[in-house]
Amino acid sequence: MLLHWHRRDLRATDNVALARAADECAVLPVFVFDDDVLAHASPPRVAFMLDALAELRRWYRERGGDLRLARGDPADVLVEAAEARDADGIYWNRDYSGLAQRRDERVAGALDAAGLTHERFHDALLHEPGSVTTNDGDPYSVYSYFARKWRDREKEAPYDAPDGDALADVRGDPLPSLADLGFDEPEAEVESAGMDVARERLDAFCDGPIYEYAERRDYPADGCTSRLSAHLKWGTIGIRATYAATEDAMDRAGSDAAREAVEAFRGQLAWREFYAHVLYFDPDVVTRNYRDYENEIDWRDDEGERRAWKDGRTGYPVVDAGMRQLREEGYVHNRVRMIVASFLTKDLLADWREGYDWFRERLVDHDTANDNGGWQWAASTGTDAQPYFRIFNPWTQGERYDPDAEYVREYVPELAGATPDEIHSWHELDPDERESVAPDYPAPIVDHGERRERALATFERARGGN
Ligand code: FAD
């Protein structure tokens, strides 16, 4: 018998390590509540994870198996679980963050010491780190070059789920609650997790919205993106299955525009892999700027401004809508993530790590590589980042991508009665006008024009200018 250690792969289908183990012998699936991992987790993510585990356990039970649950240091509890069942060893899928790699080395050492075999598989990405490199064998630091090679490489087909008769006959343990794990209920309404939800979402997306993706994906009110991020993060859908669905969509595409839209969606999957590779080869970017300037960037530490940003009370409607969506749903649309991140790091000149920490606490889909990549992109410190002199104007961004202010009015009820014009020119209204349109909504806390100049000067100094 082999144990399969589930981590960020909370699914039975299209799971490489699980499929390989089931090809060899009976499999006992295990999940470990690892205190080191929980220390970096937050209520919305743990709520999603527990929901996914409940469904995974149901899946195994319906087929005569079960999911063993344990809590503690995986290096101890996995050895105990394997020895208790007289298992030969443990298979698992790789996780590419620095923290996970260090833990996995420790677990591998403990298994070696106990005389248990172990094997790790590439599963989370279509192309594992080290497989898409420059001609000199170096990791790419420019996305477009990476993406070109990534696209041209052959993709693996999805793996089948194990048959019921490959599952070890065991009874699992009760699933802990959030409180058992030491977490409060999340403030956000966390979306449902699980393999079925993920599959339905993927199918619905590939049935229609994917064909408008290139044109509409930047409009937060449209909802035409896949909303798969939390599922890809937790592995309730496999990446090969996701890609295969895009191949079917490509076959059904009836025009060049539709084919380009499918390709544009794949381009975002490539961003996900690009950032995972960046993190793998440079795990310290979690806390360090990827790109060094000659001098330190003179980040400002204004608690009041940061608080207004977190609370969605900056007086910039699209920024506030994004920050409230984060609080309410544990999710923010990508265009809006870019806007709020630019606002924090350029208009408020707050260190990107402040924003990253807040997102890590609040996002259900928080993924170290993508979150870090997104923040360092916006802060102009990342690999292939937004150039420091191209600073988003939140007023024009709001007007362009939410022209009817539908998104703003959905998340900022104080502005529900305001017209799109009033919302997009909120900074130009005089105090009496603002008072009569939306008395409870704040005036802008800073002047974008002035803050833009300050950010440019700050980055110029960081580059070595005066
Ligand atoms: P879709 O547009 O449908 O894209 C499909 C999938 O591609 C996503 O689910 C995601 O896995 C991947 N993807 C899409 N855009 C990106 C991108 N720019 N970078 C990397 N992968 C991408 N994404 C996360 O998954 N977790 C994060 O913690 C995260 N933090 C971010 C922080 C900032 C400041 C920014 C600017 C972006 C961040 N992103 C993050 C990327 C992106 O915003 C989300 O992946 C996307 O909004 C999720 O919605 P979706 O599933 O509908 O995306």
UniProtKB/TrEMBL annotation:
Major enzyme class: lyase
Keywords: Chromophore, FAD, Flavoprotein, Lyase
Enzyme Commission (EC) number: 4.1.99.3
GO terms (BP aspect): nucleobase-containing compound metabolic process; response to stress
Entry note: cofactor: Binds 1 FAD per subunit.
Cofactor(s) needed for function: FAD
Domain Photolyase/cryptochrome alpha/beta positions: 1-126
InterPro entries, per the entry: Crypto/Photolyase_FAD-like_sf (IPR036134), Crypto/Photolyase_N_sf (IPR036155), Cryptochr/Photolyase_FAD-bd (IPR005101), Cryptochrome/DNA_photolyase_1 (IPR002081), DNA_photolyase_1_CS_C (IPR018394), DNA_photolyase_N (IPR006050), Rossmann-like_a/b/a_fold (IPR014729)
GO molecular function: deoxyribodipyrimidine photo-lyase activity
Residues that bind FAD: 213, 225-229, 265, 268-275, 365-367
Record-annotated site: Electron transfer via tryptophanyl radical: 299, 352, 375
Protein family according to the UniProt entry: Belongs to the DNA photolyase family.
Protein name (record): Cryptochrome/photolyase family protein
Species this protein is from: Halomarina halobia
